[in-house]
Amino acid sequence: MTRLRGSGRGRTLKDVRGWFRAAGRRPSWQRYGGGVTLILAVVAGRLAMDPWWGRQQNRHLFFLPAVMLTACLFGFGPGILATIISVVALACFWSGAGAGRVPFELLLFFFVSGAVCMLVRSLQRARERADVARVSREQVLTVVAHDLRAPLATIMVSASSLSRETSDPAVVRSRVKTIDRAVVRMDSLIRDIVDAAGVERGELPMTIRSERVDTVVQEAVDLHGPLAQEAGVSLESEVSAHDLTMACDRQRILQVLGNLIGNALKFTPSGGRITVRAEEQGDGVVFSVDDTGSGIAREHLAHIFDRYWSGDSRGIGLGLYISRSIVRGHGGDIGVRSSPGSGSSFFFSVPRSPAPAPAPGAAISLRHLLER
After folding, report:
1. Measured in whole angstroms, how far is the alpha carbon of residue 90 from the centre of its chain?
2. Residue 25 contacts residue 73 (beta carbons within 8 Å)
3. Residue 359: which of 247, 204, 205 has the closest Cα?
4. Among 204, 239, 243, 370, which has the minimal tally of Cβ within 10 Å of its Cβ?
């Protein structure tokens, strides 16, 4: 059997890194106990070496690596505690200063060791963020590969069938319609991925204009009307006042409504009803999408807006996450009421004037709105 050169060494390094990370996640008493035990062992070892090294030989340099190792293994707090124990030990056993005096070298050792502990903590946090980013990247690549495979297969099958069925115009139109739906699905998936990346950077651009609420709601309903009709679901709209306006990015609000209506269509059976409502409340406008579908389990409600979270395999879990970011970018908020078997009601509020003084048609970033 052929063994890849270096594979054993790679596994060993992975095991060491995993052990270091596991040590930092242990209970506090284990971390502090381990840190104290380690530094006391170093003190005892240095005392045992006095007859050979002498009391003043490399005493500070002996303890500095021990403090760094403690911070790496057990965390920032145990590292600082190891620093204090080291300073006390140096003052008691290896300092020639008189009573009541603190040598400058001990103060320097204390501050340098504290800086080392903070540096180790910063490196560990950077590593944790990198690990989270790597896991997220792997997760999204897996989901994208899975979700793109279905529409691509649909296009391939339909194109193959279309190349054979050229005599019947009805068959051709049906195949073209199927291809069009698959392309729209792929475009929506790619747009969600790009928007999610923009949300993470705080750079989801929005163009704020004054818009009539009733036309926004009607456009969202008209866009999803054919899908609702095909699914046998009644799609209705209710707007409290036809002259109601708000300052918003029309396409982004349509994107939110589209995500909510699309989700409702997934879980509402034939013969059900979806109602899109908009009404003025105080200084804002409240939108809601109510359905008579299967509802959402209570334990899922807390995660419904999380990135990459999906209650089933029919999505990548970005739509509601992006919707929440868009709504909060407008200065509003989003929520859901639901219970199994009783349908769901997604609602979000948008202030009628989300930005203090945007020029008409001015483009603003999500970061700007979230930092107001």
Report:
1. 46
2. no
3. 247
4. 243
231: which DSSP letter? H
- CA pair distance 70, 35, nearest whole angstrom: 6
* Domain spans in the chain, listed from the N-terminal domain onward: 7-130, 140-201, 206-370
Q: Quote the tokens at residue 204.
A: 């989801």
Structural contact between residues 333 and 349, judged by C-beta atoms closer than 8 angstroms: yes
Tokens, residue 11: 């596994």
* Positive or negative torsion for Cα 192, 193, 198, 200: positive
Token pair recorded at residue 94: 């290896």
**pLDDT tens per residue, range 195-248:** 666 666 666 778 888 999 999 999 999 888 888 888 899 999 999 888 889 999
Question: What CATH number was assigned to the domain covering residues 206-370?
Answer: 3.30.565.10
Looking at residue 1, what DSSP letter applies?
-
Reduce the DSSP state of residue 277 to 3 states and report it.
strand
- Residue-wise pLDDT tens digits, 350-371: 988 755 544 434 444 444 434 4
CB-based contacts of 361: which residues, under 8 Å, 6+ apart? Answer: 207, 208, 209
Cβ-proximal residues to 102 (8 Å cutoff; 6+ apart), any chain: 91
Give the pTM.
0.54
| 305, 333 contact by CB (below 8 A) | no
